[in-house]
Amino acid sequence: MSSLSSFAHPSTCILQQKRDSNTNRDSYARSHPGADQLPVGASTRAVEDRTCSLLRSCVSFPRLTQIHARIVRHAIYSSNLVAAKLVSACFSLDRPDRVFAHVPRPSPFLWNSMIKGYVGLGRHRDALLVYRRMLDCGCRLDNCSFTSALKACSNLLALEEGMALHGHVLKLGLGADIYIATSLMDLSGMCSQALDARKVFDHMPDKVVVAWNVMLHSYARLGMMRLAEQLFEEIPLRNVNSWTALICGFLECGDLSESIVAFHRMQLYGLKPDKVMVVTMLSAIADLGMLDSGPC
C-alpha cells in the first residue's frame, strides 16, 4: 500500500518557502495592473463583493491571474467567501495550483476547500497530499479537514492511511464528531472491515440517519444481508437511501424476490423511488425475463 509521502505532488506552488511574502505579494500585484478597478479607499467589503463577482464570471486563465492579483494586493484571501469563489474558479479552469500562489498564510478554510475540491475531482491522492502539507505546516485541522481526507481514503481503499488519520482525530479530541465517525465507518466498510465499522457505529452517542445508512450499505455491500435486515428494522427514521441500500443488497445477492418485496414496502411507507432505483429494478427483472411483472 502506498504511503502518503509517495503521492504525486499536485503543485510546486503549494507553500511559500521562507521568503519575504510582503515584497513578493506587492511585486506580483503590480505586475498585473488589470486586477484593480475599484476607486482608492474602497471598503474591504466592497472589494470582496467585487472580487467574488469577477470570480463567478471568470472563464479564462489570464483573467483569473488578474483577479488573483487583486486578492493578493488587498490581502482578502482570509475571507471565506472570497476563498470559496477562488477555489471554485481555479478548479473549474483546471488550475488548482493557483489557489496558494503568493498567499503567505493559507487559512484553514482555504486548505479544507482545496482538499474537498480535489476529492470532488476524483484526485484523491492529491487531496491526501494537501492534507499532509496542511498537517506539516502546523495549520489547525478541524472536522472538515478529516471528513474530506477520510473520504479520499475510502475512494482509494487506503485503510492504513485512514487509520493514521483516525489517530490524528483522537489526538485532537475529535473522536466523538458524528461526521468524522461516519466517514471512518464508510472507510471501514469500503475496505471490507464491517466489524470495525460496527464498532465505530456502536460507540456513536447520537446516530444520525446518515450513520445508519452507511452501516447498512457496509453490510449490504459485503453480502451480509441478515445483519443488514436486522439493522434496517432498527433504523428509527428510514429514507430513500435506507431502502435503496437494502434493495440493492438483495439484488447483489441475486435475491430478486426479496428486493421486489422491499421495493413495494418502500412505496407503502409513502416513499417514492428515484429514477436510478426504478431503472435498477427494471434491469434486474428484465435479466430474469420477468419484465411483464415489473416492480410497480
Please give a structural write-up.
The protein is an all-alpha fold and 296 residues long. The chain folds into three domains: 17-103, no CATH class; 108-206, Serine Threonine Protein Phosphatase 5, Tetratricopeptide repeat, CATH 1.25.40; 207-296, Serine Threonine Protein Phosphatase 5, Tetratricopeptide repeat, CATH 1.25.40. The protein is 63% helix and 0% strand. It contains 15 helices and no strands. It has helices spanning 21-30, 44-56, 61-73, 80-92, 108-120, 124-136, 143-156, 159-171, 178-190, 194-202, 209-221, 225-234, 240-252, 256-268, 275-287. The longest helix has 14 residues, at 143-156.
Rg over CA atoms, rounded to whole Å, is 24 Å
Query: How would a textbook summarize the main sheet?
Result: none
CATH architecture of the largest domain: Alpha Horseshoe
Principal-axes geometry comes out as elongated
Number of helices: 15
Global mean pLDDT: 84
First-residue to last-residue Cα separation: 46 Å
CATH first level of the largest domain: which class? Mainly Alpha
Query: How many separate domains make up the residues?
Result: 3
Q: How much of the sequence is in beta strands? A: under 5%
What structural class is derived from the secondary structure elements? Answer: mainly alpha
The fold-level CATH name of the largest domain is Serine Threonine Protein Phosphatase 5, Tetratricopeptide repeat
Strand and helix map with partners:
Elements lengths: L20 H10 L13 H13 L4 H13 L6 H13 L15 H13 L3 H13 L6 H14 L2 H13 L6 H13 L3 H9 L6 H13 L3 H10 L5 H13 L3 H13 L6 H13 L9
